[in-house]
Amino acid sequence: MDPAAPLPDDLATLWYLVRRVAGLMDRSGEALFQREIGTSLAQFLVLSVVEAHPGPLNQQTVADRLGLTKGTVSRQIDAAVAAGLMTVRTSDQNRRENLIALTPVGTELVRRGDAAFEREKAATLPFVDPDDMRAAIRVLAALDGVLDPSRGEPQKQRSDTETL
Length: 164
Hints:
Blueprint: H1 10-37, H2 41-52, E1 57-58, H3 59-66, H4 70-82, E2 86-90, E3 98-102, H5 104-124, H6 130-147
Antiparallel strand pairs: 1-3, 2-3
Helix pairs in contact: 1-5, 2-3, 2-4, 2-5, 3-4
């Protein structure tokens, strides 16, 4: 399908483009992380979330942050532990909860992946107008806020006629 071809309405076009771009980004990220650090995009994302969090955290937090199921994250954690990239320990507060943390090798892998991503971004982003990128982020963040029921009642958008 031609991405420029009009679909029945703006929402359908947006839906198509979001899914298409997300798929392209996933494939590009998968290829990048396989090539540069020998791991999958999913594995890198789990490691990256853990690395960005100060101190140990549980797998449900990682799953929520990435929008993945707990089972998917669990498989990635098992693979990371087997590869020596992560540790798992039982929480002192809740014996049913496992806390995860990166090993020094896992931290180094994330840093190498971040550097590879920065190089890729520097090669790609000059082709996208920064104002367009910010506008896309604003629109997607607004839709996320409206469509995600876990965020509670969506905020009413102020009309142009309303005053501050």
